[in-house]
Amino acid sequence: MLEVDVVVPRGGFRLEAAFRSDAPIVALFGRSGSGKTTLVNAIAGIARPERGRIVIGERVLFDSARGIDLAPEKRRVGYVFQDALLFPHLSVRANVAYGESLTPAAERFVDGERVLALLGIRDLLDRNPASLSGGEKQRVAIGRALMASPRILLLDEPLASLDGARKAEILAYIELLRDELRLPMVYVSHALEEVTRLADRVVVIAEGRVIAEGPAAEALSRADMGALTGRFDEGAVIEARVAAHDARFELTTLAFAGGELVVPNVDALPGEPVRVRVRARDVSLALSRPSGITIQNVLEGDVVSIGHEFGAIVDVALRIGHTALSARITRKAASDLALAPGARVFAMVKAVSIDRRSVGFA
Amino acid sequence: MSGEESGILLLSLKVAFVGLAASLPPAIAVAFVLARKRFPGKTLFDAFVHLPLVLPPVVVGYALLVFFGTQGPIGGLLEPLGIVFAFRWTGAALAASIMGFPLLVRAIRLAMEAVDPRIEAAARTLGASRTRVFFTVTMPLSVSGIVTGALLSFARSLGEFGATITFVSNIPGETRTLPLAIYTFTQVPGGDAQALRLALFSVALSLAALAFSEWLVRRSSAHASHA
Amino acid sequence: MHDILASITLAARLIAGGDAELWRIVVLSLEVSLASAFFACAIGLPLGTLIAVGDFPARRAVVVMMNALLGLPSVVVGLVVYLLLSRAGPLGSIGILFTPTAIVIAQTLLVLPVVAALSRQFAEDAWGEYREQLTSLGVSPARAVPTLLWDLRLTLFTVVLAGFGRGASEVGAVMIVGGNIDGVTRVMTTSIALETSKGDLPLALGLGIILLTIVLALNALAFAIREWSVRHG
User: Fold this and answer.
1) Would you call B169 and C197 a contact, using CB atoms and an 8 Å cutoff?
2) Span B3-226: which CATH code?
3) B/A touch flag: 3 or more CB pairs below 8 Å
4) pTM of the model
5) Domains of chain B: which residue ranges?
6) d(CA A170, CA C119)
7) What's the ipTM?
8) A240 and A211 in a common domain
C-alpha cells in the first residue's frame, strides 16, 4: 500500500496532495506543470516536502511529524525518467549494473536474466548510451531501475520523448512488466490514452492539488476533466468485460453495467476485463430507438444533466444503467428534442470511433 | 643546453607539477561547492577564489610571505613539522599553485555545471550515496574540465614571476625557475644567449600545453557531436 | 605577527608622511602605466573591434599574433624588448634601455593583447545585436567600428581600467627592460619584489598597500560601471 500525504513547495506554487493506492499501477494524471513530477520526486526523495507522510507498505520513507526523512539511496524506489538519463560515461551493461551492485545481496530479488529478456536489451549491453535510439534508451533505463530491486517503480512520463511507434512499443513493455512482475508502479502522464490503458487507479492532479482519485473509470469520467484531457478527448471511461467475438466481421462485444458495446476486434479472451474510452463527441442522441442506421451501438438511458447554456455546443451527461456516459451535441439539438434531466434517450456510439487506442486492459 | 640550464628547466617542471598536484584536490572541492551549493557569502567566496587573478602577483607574493614565511601564522605552525616554504622550491610551488588556482577552479566548475543534476539524482535513486555519486558520476563527467584547467594552470605556472620572486627570492637551484632565470641571465654580462635559449624553451612549453588543451577541446566536441 | 604590525605602522607613516622615495616610486609607476594603457588602448580598442566585425585579409594572422602575445610569459616579452633595445641589438643606438620609455614599450606590448581580446569580446556581442541595423543602413564594417566604439564607451572604459591594472601589476618584463634603477626605473612592483628580499619591509608594505588600493579601486570602479550599465540598459 502506497500512502502519500504531503505539502511540497515548488518554484512558484505549492503542491498539496494526498492519495493511497495498492493497485498494481496507479497513474498520476494531469497537465504539464500541475505538480505530478514534484509528487514523484517527493516519493523518490529528490524533492523534500515541507510536511507530510510517505509510506510504502510498512516502510516509512518520510514523516515530518516524527522527523523521518530517508535519503534517496535508502528508499529502494526505482525511478524511470522522462529522458532516460542514462550515464553517458558508462556502457549499457555498466548502467544496468550500477544499481544492482549497490543493492545488498540479501535484498536482491529481481531476476536479472528475466528482466534483460523481458525488455529485450541483452543485445545492447556492450553499446554506448549515446548510440541508442530513444526507445532503446528507455528500455535500458527501465532495466537499470529494475536491477536495483526496487520496492516500487516510478515512471515519469516515460513515453514523452518518443515518437508514435516507439511509444506503442514501450507501452507494451510496461504492460508486460505490470503483468509479469509483482512490482507496484506509479505512472505519471498527461496522456489520457496511456493512463487509460495502464492504470487501475488514477489520481488526477491540477495546479498542485488532487482533484479526483479512484478507480480509473470513475476518476476519469467526471465532467470537469475537459481541461485536462483536452476538449477533443473528453468523454467517459467504461469498465467492461469481453463477452463474445464475431469472427466473421472481426468485432468484439463488450458487456458493461448498462448494456453492451460492439467494437472492432479487441485482442482479449472472453471474460477478460477491459477499460473503454468513449469520447463525448462520438455520442449522438435520439428520442426513440432508430432503425435502418449503420450505428452498431444504441444504448438506452436517461439524461442526468445538461451542461453550459451558452455557445453552440452542450455536453449532456447520461446514465446508461449504472454507467455514466457523456454526449456532445448542438444546443439547438438539445432544444429541438426538448432534452431535460430525467428524459429517456437512446445514445448512439459508432463502433468505428472506439479504436484500438481507446481500449485498455485491466 | 648546459647543465645549469637543464637544472633550471627541471626545477621549473618540478615546481609546476608539484604545484598542480597540490592544488587539484582543493580545486575540485571548491569547484564542486561553487557549482552545486548555495550558501550565504557565496559571491564573496567566489571573489576570494579569483583574487590571484585580480591582484598584482607581487602583492600575492607578499601576502604569501606574511602568512607562510617562517615568522608567519601558518608558516610558523608548519616549520616544526618540517614543512618550510620560505626560500625553498616548495614555496615556489605554492606560489605557482596559488596563481593558477582560479583558472583551475573555473575550468572544473564549468565542467561540473554542465553535468545534469538529474543524472546525479538518478544515481541516488539507484542506491548511491552522495559521496559515491560524486566519485562515480560527477567527477568522471567533469574530467575534460579538470584536464583543461590543469593545462591552463600549468602553463600559467611556467610563466610565473612576480609572486615567486617576492615570496621565495631568486635562489639558484632552489627557487630560480625559468622566468626568474631568464631575468637573472640578462643581468649577467654575456648571459643574453642563455636567456634567449631559456625563453625559447619557455615558449615551447607554453605552446605545447596550449596546443594540447586545444586538441582535447576539439576531440571532446567531436566526440559529443559523433554521439 | 608583531613584526608585521610594527611594519604596518611604519608603512602608514611613510605614506601619510609623504616620504619622498615612496611617492617618487608611486608617481613613476602611475606615469608608465598610464602611458602604456594609453598606447595599448589607442591601438587595441579599435583593433579588437575591427577583428570582431571586420573581414580583412590579414585578420587571421592578426588574431593568431594577438593570441600568441597573450599566451606568452611576460618575461619572454620583456626579454625580446630587452634584446631589441640592448647595445648589441638593432635598436640599441637609440639608447632607451633601462629608461622609463623601455618600460612603457614592454608594458604596452603586454597590455595590448589583453585590451584587444576584451574589446573583441564585447564588440562581438554588440555586433551580434546591431549587425542587421547597421548593415541595413549601409554602414560597412570598417565604418561600424567607430559607431560601436562610441556605443560601447562605458564597457570599453572598463577595458581601459583592466589594461591599466594589468600594466601596473607587471613586474617581470619591467625588471628586465628597466633594471629597477633607483630614481629612474624603480616602480612599485619591482620595488616590492626587491625590498622584501632586502628586508626593507615598511617601504615594500607601504608600496604594497598603495598598489593594492589602486588595483582594488580599479576593480570596484569597473564593477560599478558594469552594474550601472546593466541597470540602465
Assistant:
1) yes
2) 1.10.3720.10
3) yes
4) 0.80
5) 3-226
6) 53
7) 0.84
8) no
